[in-house]
Amino acid sequence: MYKPDYPTKFPEGFLWGGATAANQVEGAWNVDGKGLTTADVVRKADNRKDMASADAVDQESLKVALADQTDTHYPKRRGVDFYHHYQEDIKLFAEMGFKVYRFSIAWSRIFPNGDEATPNEAGLKFYDRVLDELAKYNIEPLITLSHYEMPIGLTIKQNGWASRKTIADFNRFTEVVFKRYRGRVKYWLTFNEINTSTWGFHETGAIDAGMTPEQQMQIRYQSVHNQFVASAIATKQLHTIDPHAQIGCMLARQQTYPKTPNPVDVVAAQQADDLNLFFTDVQARGEYPEYMNRYFAEHHVHIEFGEHDAQVLRENPVDFISFSYYMTTVTSANEDGNAAGNMATGGRNPYLKESDWGWQIDPVGLRITLDEMWDRYRKPLFVVENGLGAVDKLEDGHVHDGYRIDYLRQHIEQMREAVSDGVQLMGYTMWGPIDLISFSTSEMSKRYGFIYVDQDDAGHGTLKRIRKDSFYWYKQVIASNGADL
Ligand code: BGP
Questions:
Q1: pTM
Q2: Catalytically annotated residue among 385, 395, 417, 443
Q3: ipTM of model
Q4: What dotted CATH number matches 15-479?
Q5: 257 CB-side CA count, 13 A
Q6: Separation between Cα atoms, residue 321 and residue 18, nearest integer Å
Q7: Is 195 in the pocket of ligand 1 (CB under 6 A)?
Q8: pLDDT tens across 21-48, in order?
Q9: CA-CA distances (angstroms) from residue 443 to 46, 199, 258, 436, 461?
């Protein structure tokens, strides 16, 4: 599959495309037997830069959400109605020349409560239709098994990933979809941005609001461990069920730079980076890295290992490593090392500009990231998210989003440099080829797409799809395999 084409081109067969998540595009939150998910109970943020809204679920707000049968306060329930527009949307992806489309399967469409004895056939059929549509245009699916949601039933019953029981529930789901879609899907990912489990609910499905930071840390890292084991078991299942398919992990990569050349700052940056790369260290190398022993001891975190966990992790590393890339951060020895790992809350870099939401833009950092990760792991890499959230204006039926083109061009140029440096790069799925609901703020107006969707923050609009300027630009990028930027 991968053929190096040194020195300045992207390899032949490079997978160009875009990425979305079920809970941000599908809508149809209560259609065809789908159960409620953790994403369906997240209220719209009051503050448009609020990163924490997706985790602000406590027992009280959960009760309110469960009783609410509307989508008024829960925009992820409505998405952009991909559930009913998938043919039109995939046709537009095909028009741009997509080679790959990354999307997630909503677990609660297949197992509405997470632990039924038999799967929901209507849910399986929906993804059959999506796969058929992609096959029509020779677009490879890249499927995320868990993208920021799980059946809310498992939160209520066992506090989500905080419980080991969730491993078996998840792996029943993965076995069903691997068997059902065998031979039709070459690329799978287990957990989207698994490291954001350290932020809480949206990734762990465990309600820990109101606990002390120490208790939260304990619950979150244990949830991570349970996801590691579930991911390794899924890897084993896939390799047995469909030996031609490949499976990867997925990290929200955030490179940390030292604030100054003072060696103590360099150590602080290295430590912050280790905390970010811990996740891929485990999933790619199959064991916990030594530096985490010290970290856990210093923070009084105790990870409960099942009898066979170490062996399962060791025997089932991932085939490739994928990550999202939005920004880098800066730290110094004077700052709290933990804060440096948080998106948009780390130190500012005076050399970089930022988006309307304060995310610092660092194309060169993508090259640094790719080069370092290739050195560290020597496994194929896949950039599965990168993009610019911006306020777009629709004028006379057009969106002139030159700023988005600039952003993507600069990042793709740096990817090309990394490929020339020798990095094995499988592909690039930019985030949000079609406008969708923002993860962090649940807003519609934070747009990423090549395709504009006529819907506002309150859910009003025709849902009409409109090609932006960037749509035509990306088409030319793909047609020229990244030569014509
Ligand atoms: C990543 C998530 C996506 C996505 C993206 C952009 O962290 O994997 O789900 O939404 O970030 O973030 P936002 O929507 O908050 O702008």
A1: 0.96
A2: 385
A3: 0.99
A4: 3.20.20.80
A5: 20
A6: 17
A7: no
A8: 999 999 999 999 999 999 999 998 777 6
A9: 10, 20, 33, 8, 14
